[in-house]
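Running low. Any example?
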Amino acid sequence: MSSENYYAILGVNEKDNQDTIKKSYRKLAKEHHPDKGGDENTFKKISEAYDVLGDENKRSQYDNQRNNPFGGMGGGFNPFEQMFNQQRAQRPQRPSAPDKIIDIMIGVLESYNGSDKHITYQRKHMCDDCSGSGGDRNTCQYCHGNGFVTQKIGTGMFVQMVQSHCNACNGQGYSYVRVCHTCQGSTTKDKMETLSVKLPHAVDDGQFLKLQGKGDYYKGIYGNLILRVKVKPDGDFEKFGNDLIYNKIFDLKGLKSESFDVPHPQGPLSIKMPPTFDTSKPLRVKSKGFNGGDLFIKLFVKFTR
């Protein structure tokens, strides 16, 4: 059992009814919502407290454990069953929200410069009208709000506890008495959101960037947003590991020049024409790539006779 005082977190009394608890939760959830400048940890505690106190069966179990932490231990002693209960008590009481993964396209020069990237994506927010509850609920009488049923298999010293999905409530632990008209019981509303991300220098194709708490709303908390990076050529530039590749195309006039310019992201570079113009071998400029990598200039020729 959590050591937190759920009644104090919601600002209610132990004798308050469910309507009072619900009103207090909705008020606090709106005040401390992360999207409105609230603290994410405080919002999680409020959601966790309501998850217990907002359910009559869970609240009753919570009250019994607070008043008598050793309650329910009477009867015959079974070491296997006790061990199972201890392991179950150590498990996290609230599920973690799944990560939201989206792909972002980044140009080679954006990677080199560590640019600010503006990203617009669709995100599931907590429904404000029902404060993420989906509506008024009734606790499932078969699984008592757990979403699963536990069966004891075996006898004597060889007892095994088996959990199975509750078919009565489809694993939710509750059914709706009144469904929220705004979210239709989904607990969320889809909104388009734009945020700015500072790209790390040399971010590469296939890398992942994690933004804490910027994912979808799920059972009282917001998950993380994972950005899967895809690097694309940028003008005449390409990226290969820590090397920066520049594709230079010469016309007939350019072949007769003594030098040519490369528009390097750190500033233009003047490159002297090699004595032998060989398109099969790129020119190399040391330490002008990513993180100590090199700049390679691929030579191409294109002109009309």
Residues 286 and 294 are 5 Å apart (CA to CA). The two ends are 84 Å apart (CA to CA). The chain has a mean pLDDT of 86. Residues 18-31 form the longest helix (14 residues).
